[in-house]
Write a structure and sequence with these properties.
The protein has 773 residues and is of the alpha/beta class. The protein contains 33 helices and 14 strands. It is elongated, with a radius of gyration of 36 Å. Bound molecules: adenosine-5'-triphosphate (ATP).
Length: 773
């Protein structure tokens, strides 16, 4: 009760007008509520991040009816529900209030304000941060410049289809002396309405020779238009395919060369969504949208010129109508760009969740959370947008929503799509209105002109046909512009990702290639030194994972790193593998800073086996050969597999070494054996093992460990080994043990020395003797 009272006080203390700030208020209130009593309000806090404030009240009423009734009473005085009315509102005032609320559904109303992924309303400033249209087009052009010939062919055939001179088709058969008419007949597709009308009127007036001539021209024009369209459309398709391919290539290679920290922040689902649907959508920009826009602009311009030739006053009225339509088109296009951006974002989030769920399907099954993953408690009004639901709640009982992570994003997609559909409805409405306006204006003004003898009935018919053509072209331009805006909206994230610079260590002379840059030592001795190394993961820049770490690994020795979970053992290996760069200090290999060495060469000389080694979806031989730069025979692959005790189980697979495997098709121990065989085959100078044998049975582990730690490479020479271990047997076998505690080195020495010290290591061994033994 005190919490509810405090929360009520918080809400009433700051009565903020609701308009345009619903998301923000809701968020603030809930932050405060959550701080006041996190146990009472945890769920509400996360939910209302994307709910408008009215839903806070709804949610509280529904979920915490008993506890927070004073809060909702107080809240309802401060916050007027979007579609509802205050308690006590009745009669005309209440009705007016409700009507006013419904007014928010009209263009420009509050219903059209979008919320971003964080659930907060996006203001104009945030939208302006997007990629400008010209900038997006420039980037697109740069992307396809290599294949510009495809575009040239497409545009040339388009121009031919739309604007080619008819004179070559029928030149000598024209009526002499009719200058205007001759000019009018210069356009191929555009002249179809002209000859159509001329044919009809010549038939009506009984001029059979003129009728047949016009009919012949009509057929020729239709054929010409069709033939020119063929290369044009084919080229466009070809262009779209090329562009998607090129974009995916570029994006994929840009992503591949990013820092590991980048992948800590971006999820796989999100990135694959950009590579998939986003690239497809963006490819429409030049291949489809721009192409259709130019075609319709050409045709519209031709029709307009024709109209001006026929009648200037009538043509001006058409210009006026088209200008109004263009204004509507501008706003609609801007709206579409925003919609597309949000839809891409929400789709990416939905993909992210789906990908995660499918990757963790075993956990979902074991914990029986399928229903939870599908949870969806909509009622009668499902699925309609949150806002509309809120308005309807004034008339109907609307059940509270309960959505899971995936449904949350689908619901938000739906929410945006709903508004998109309504906007399309408004756009179509305006088109219809203007389309019919042209006819009415043409008939009225044209009829008057006929009455006064300024134009003939034939001219008016032509005028109406061309006016329709003009408005039709304007409509298509509008439609394609909005589609272009959609594509540009969708392109934003793709271009942002493509603009990322590749990781510094992989750049050479401005190119990101698998390159050779830096020092290559003639031979790796294997002396590794960590000098005052400190490190924070970029995603947690305030929390150091390593603090002033100093230790050495001597050549041909086995160094074990031990310590409690989270003490920084794997981080040390990550830094040595240069997956991250130290925030402070240096790591040296044979006296040379790692940063000065050729990274490609360095990695070729390191073998790494992790705790959960990844297996690629390919056959066993390819998996063992993965990353091995030297040529290897099948015998060598089998030798490595035998050393890793993998040979027997591989032979028992349906196709032996040719069996297709992946992470889900092998046991943990089998995966580790393949990864160990992979490391053995590389014959690395330095071997790094991160609990590499944890999934093996005791006997196999003993044998494999012997091999990895003592036997060394093919020629029997020992190598430098760094091993993270929890088992006492592994640790005892090490020449040197580095004991980590809370990101610092607590002790260094061998097993005997450390036990004699009686320090942290002794306590660790004592406390975890069961686990270590
Ligand atoms: N990618 C990452 N981003 C942010 N923090 C991380 C990341 N990886 C590890 N950490 C944090 O760094 C600290 C050290 O982690 P590390 O993986 O090195 O521990 P560890 O000693 O290897 O643990 P374990 O024995 O459980 O594998 C931990 O607090 C961990 O939460």
């Amino acid at each position: 009760m005190p919490a509810a009272a405090a929360a009520a006080a918080l809400l009433t203390a700051a009565p903020v007008p609701l308009a345009n700030t619903a998301g923000r208020i809701s968020y603030k209130c809930n932050r405060s509520l959550h701080r006041q009593n996190p146990t009472l309000f945890p769920e509400i806090r996360s939910r209302t991040l994307f709910f408008p404030s009215t839903h806070l009240v709804e949610l509280l009423q529904h979920r915490h009816r008993n506890i927070v009734s004073p809060l909702t009473a107080a809240a309802s005085n401060s916050f007027l529900p979007v579609g509802g009315s205050k308690a006590g509102d009745s009669g005309v005032a209440g009705l007016l209030e409700r009507l006013r609320a419904w007014g928010h559904f009209l263009p420009g109303g509050r219903w059209w304000v979008f919320q971003g992924c964080d659930g907060v309303n996006r203001d104009e400033e945030q939208w302006k941060k997007g990629v400008p249209v010209l900038c997006a087009l420039r980037q697109m052009w740069f992307l396809v410049a290599r294949d510009r010939w495809v575009i040239y062919v497409a545009f040339a055939s388009l121009a031919t289809a739309s604007v080619s001179r008819v004179s070559s088709w029928w030149g000598h058969g024209q009526r002499e002396g009719e200058r205007d008419e001759r000019r009018e007949k210069e356009l191929a597709e555009l002249s179809i309405p002209h000859f159509l009308t001329a044919s009809i009127f010549s038939a009506q007036s009984g001029k059979s020779s003129i009728f047949y001539k016009n009919a012949r021209i009509l057929v020729s024009l239709c054929l010409a238009s069709g033939i020119c369209r063929f290369p044009h459309e084919g080229d466009n398709e070809l262009y779209c395919i090329l562009q998607v391919k090129r974009m995916r290539e570029m994006l994929y290679s840009t992503l591949l060369f990013q820092d590991i920290a980048f992948f800590d922040e971006e999820t796989v689902g999100n990135l694959t969504s950009r590579l998939g649907s986003d690239c497809q959508q963006v490819s429409r920009i030049i291949g489809n949208d721009l192409n259709l826009i130019s075609r319709n602009v050409l045709q519209g311009a031709g029709a307009l010129i024709y109209l001006f030739i026929l009648s200037r006053p009538l043509a001006l009225s058409m210009v006026l109508i088209c200008a109004t339509l263009s204004t509507v088109m501008f706003f609609y296009g801007r709206f579409q760009k925003r919609v597309a951006k949000l839809m891409q974002e929400f789709t990416a989030h939905a993909n992210e969740v789906a990908q995660e769920t499918f990757c963790l399907i075993r956990t979902v099954r074991v914990y029986g959370t399928e229903k939870q993953e599908l949870e969806r408690k909509f009622g009668l009004l499902s699925p309609i947008s949150f806002h509309l639901r809120s308005h309807l709640s004034g008339f109907l009982t609307v059940p509270t929503l309960a959505v899971n992570r995936y449904m949350k994003w689908l619901e938000r997609l739906w929410d945006v799509s709903l508004r998109q559909s309504v906007a399309y409805g408004f756009w179509s409405l305006s088109y219809n209105f203007f389309y019919h306006s042209t006819q009415v204006v043409a008939v009225l003004t044209g009829g008057i002109s006929i009455l006064f003898g300024h134009i003939t009935a034939e001219q008016l018919t032509k005028f109406i046909l061309y006016a329709e053509w003009l408005i039709y072209s304007a409509w298509w331009v509008g439609d394609n512009c909005s589609s272009l805006m959609q594509s540009i909206g969708a392109s934003e994230k793709v271009f942002q990702l493509m603009d990322l610079l590749p990781r510094q260590q992989l750049i050479s002379e401005g190119k990101c290639v698998l390159l050779s840059k830096g020092i290559r030592l003639p031979k790796i001795v294997g002396n590794i030194e960590f000098v005052d190394v400190s490190f924070c993961y970029p995603t947690r820049s305030m929390v150091p994972s390593l603090k002033h770490v100093n230790f050495s690994v001597l050549p041909n020795e086995v160094t074990a790193i031990v310590g409690r979970s989270g003490s920084g053992k794997s981080t040390i290996l990550n830094l040595f593998l240069r997956l991250y760069e130290p925030s402070n200090g240096q790591i040296l290999l044979d006296g040379i800073p790692l940063g000065d060495l050729d990274i490609k060469w360095l990695r070729e000389n390191i073998g790494f086996v992790g705790q959960e080694p990844p297996i690629f979806r390919m056959d066993v031989t390819s998996n063992i050969r993965y990353g091995c730069t030297r040529e290897t025979t099948q015998e060598e692959v089998e030798w490595a597999a035998k050393q890793a005790l993998a040979h027997e189980f591989i032979l028992s697979l349906p196709n032996g070494y040719s069996t297709l495997v992946d992470n889900a098709l092998l046991s943990g121990g089998q995966k580790q054996r393949i990864a160990i065989a992979r490391a053995i085959l590389r014959e690395p100078a330095i071997l790094i093992l991160d609990e590499a044998t944890s999934a093996l049975d005791a006997e196999s582990e003993h044998y494999v460990k012997e091999l990895l730690l003592s036997v060394g490479n093919l020629s029997g020479q020992k190598r430098t080994v760094i091993v993270i271990a929890h088992r006492l047997s592994t640790i005892q076998a090490a020449d040197r043990i580095v004991v980590m505690d809370g990101g610092t080195v607590a002790e260094v020495g061998n097993h005997k020395e450390l036990l004699q010290n009686g320090g942290f290591y002794t306590r660790l061994v004592g406390r975890h003797s069961d686990a270590l033994a």
